[in-house]
Amino acid sequence: MTAQPRETFEARLRAIGETRYHDKHPFHSMLHGGQCTMTQVRAWVVNRYYYQSRIPMKDAAFLSRCTDPDLRRAWRSRIEDHDGGVAEGGGIRRWLKLAEAVGLDPVYVASTEGVLPATRFAVDAYVAFVREKPMLEAVAASLTELFAPKIHSQRIAGLLEHYAFADDAALSYFRTRLNEAPKDVAFGLAYVLDHADTLEKQDAAAAALTFKTDVLWSQLDALHSAYVTPARIPPGGWDGETGVRESAQYQGAAQ
Ligand SMILES: O=C(O)c1cc(C(=O)O)c2c(n1)C(=O)C(=O)c1cc(C(=O)O)[nH]c1-2
User: Fold this and answer.
1) ipTM for this model
2) Ligand 1: which atom is nearest the Cα of residue 59?
3) CA-CA distance, 98 to 1, in Å (whole number)?
4) Taking phi first (over 0 means left), then psi (-120 to 50 degrees means alpha), and beta for anything else, what does residue 169 get?
5) Residue partners of 19: CB distance under 8 A and separation at least 6
6) Over the stretch 128-142, which tens digit does the pLDDT of each residue have?
7) Residues of the chain with pLDDT under 70
8) What residues does ligand 1 touch, defined as CB less than 6 Å away?
9) What is the atom index within ligand 1 of the atom nearest the CA of 126?
10) I need a labelling partner for 157 at 20 to 30 A (CA). Which of 63, 137, 151, 252 fits?
11) Which domain of life is it from (predicted)?
């Protein structure tokens, strides 16, 4: 079957974000609107660390299958963005700065103990998807980043306005992503538009992007179910206390 015209296919991909991206999730409205308690903010930081920690692993899985040196060269900066160098670190270290700012022990957060089972399943499914699926689908799955700069900007503004822990140092992860993501997404989008040259491949790429929106949405469903009243923390989930520093300034309700 004939492929959709490039513009129609791009609009189709963007429409997936319009309807399914996790900026529409109620947990994000609470977080960005200042309605989260500090326990809920900490639960988000603990769980989202797992996603951060697995992103460079999924990019390494991608690179391990990649036979084209040009594609490898373009892709490898994603790992550098998250891991950085020994001295300065990268996105993972910046996420742990956020963990400290909200009163969590970064060693506890980095241990990934307390990560909700559903978060683990969702994130591990993303890594497995990138390891196993055709390269086109693996790239297409990363295109949720098309929609990430908007949510990162909303998050910076919302956290600064509503929470006492938030300052430029605590939020440096998100500011840095605003600079890093556009180059990744421009490359990824061009790759998908160029390589999805049949309707079947376009359908597969759209399905991969939809799958990825599910990966993101499921993580927030897990948080909402565990930590928003009527809270139901599953066995193994963070208990709201472990890893909270005694000196944590920001106890109690959102501030
Ligand atoms: O805060 C967010 O909502 C958000 C979403 C996404 C995304 O859409 O997958 C990423 C990020 N942040 C992010 O910081 C990041 O480094 C990242 C990498 C990837 C990816 O799939 O390779 N997505 C995302």
Assistant:
1) 0.93
2) 22
3) 49
4) alpha
5) none
6) 999 999 999 999 999
7) 249-255
8) 55, 142, 144-145, 148, 151-152, 177, 216
9) 21
10) 252
11) Bacteria
Q: In the prediction, which pLDDT does 247 show?
A: 74
Q: Which two tokens stand for residue 81?
A: 């963005």
Q: Whose CA is nearest to atom 2 of ligand 1?
A: 148
Contacts of 3 (CB under 8 A, 6+ apart): 9, 196, 197, 198, 199, 201, 202
Instruction: Fill in the amino acid letter for 82.
Output: H
Distance CA 75, CA 65 (A): 12
Q: Separation of 2 CA from ligand 1 center, angstroms?
A: 32
Q: Closest ligand 1 atom, CA of 58?
A: 22
Nearest ligand 1 atom to the CA of 81 is 16
Domains of the chain (ranges plus CATH)? 6-227 (1.20.910.10)
pLDDT value at residue 253: 44
Give 97 Cα–ligand 1 centroid separation in angstroms.
18
Rounded to the nearest angstrom, the distance between the alpha carbon of 42 and the centre of ligand 1 is 19
- For a mutational test of ligand 1's pocket, the pick from 81, 144, 155, i.e. the residue with the most ligand atoms closer than 8 A to its C-beta, is 144
What value does the CA radius of gyration of the chain take, rounded to a whole number of Å? 18
